[in-house]
Amino acid sequence: MADRWAPLQQLLKAGVNQGGFTAAVALAGVEGELRWQGAAGALSQDPGAAAATLDTVFDLASLTKPLATTLALMVLAGRGQLDPASPLGEVLPAPWLPPDKRPLTLRSLLTHRSGLPAWRPFYQEVLAAPPEARPTLLERLAAATPLEYPPDTATLYSDLGFMLLKAVVESLSGKNLDQFCREEIYRPLGLKTLGFISLPQPAQTVPTTENRKPKTENRLYAATEPGLIPGRPPAGEVHDENAWAAGGVAGHAGLFGPGGEVFRLVASLWQAYNGEETGPLTPAVVRHFLTVPPGADRACGFDIPGPDPVARTAGRYFSPRSVGHLGFTGTSFWLDLETGQMVVLLTNRVHLGRDDKTRIAAFRPRFHEAASRALGFTQPY
Hints:
Blueprint: H1 6-17, E1 23-30, E2 33-41, E3 57-61, H2 64-78, H3 88-91, H4 106-110, H5 122-128, H6 134-144, H7 159-173, H8 177-186, E4 195-196, H9 241-245, E5 255-258, H10 259-273, H11 283-289, E6 322-327, E7 331-336, E8 341-347, H12 358-375
Antiparallel strand pairs: 1-2, 1-8, 3-5, 4-5, 6-7, 7-8
Helix pairs in contact: 1-12, 2-7, 2-8, 2-11, 5-6, 6-7, 10-11
């Protein structure tokens, strides 16, 4: 029986050998029970780099959206502090929120139907601002950005919407997103490593690596890339430029963690969805968030498999009732709400160049299909 898992380990090694990434960790299970886990490669392409292990910490990139910001909103909803239908102006009474953003519902932001653009290079303006102004400047810039289309008329994946949702969490809870997630979600669930890496705000616009305390002293991080900001180390600090400029904590990026803890968090979602009380997650709220709203093509904070079987990153064996997300650095997870299968795949594909997306795009569905078959799911959708 053990041989059925061999293709998964072989695929991870093949992904390394074919230049898709230097480090990978993957886990697969059913109904919250871990059935297989494996690691391959090295933390970086540097000669003598340490081997990737199950404890390797990855920059989770946009997995921050569902596994930090959205979960925080779920917890607040479970406490009766918000409803996805709430207008933004009702839960974020900030003087800097312009009139055109106040009617936007949390649901439209969570499902990327707010009308906000996908991305803006805010980091340039943030880095030019005084250090004391930076922690909230990202949200203010997002709020000031004009809408590109009328809300709830189209879907456009947007980092900006989750910048504003971070402000909602912080306004309602009185804690920053990092602290709230750590104290109210991750630690109560027994997750000791998963979290943000808050960065010191440098006095100068561009810091040097020599005057920064390294973030890798006690943990092994998979390297990403130096990126667009000179002096930023390639490991242990968030890869996303906007999140980095804001101090490492943002609503759209900044979360770090090992594969095992990501799997356990996804397993907690499965358990809550099926009625189990799992600490901070309220089953009715989880079911509401993970159900695609009318007119939307995403669940609240989570992606769903696309209609094209060839392009589906989850492969052919995850049902349409699946939720998951991708991260720009090469990370992903998928959870099938119908069958209970779940797969976490973490890589550092941007370490070898952010512009080559074709290799990871081809690798993901291939790996997920192999994982589904090993788990015993062979019915295509």
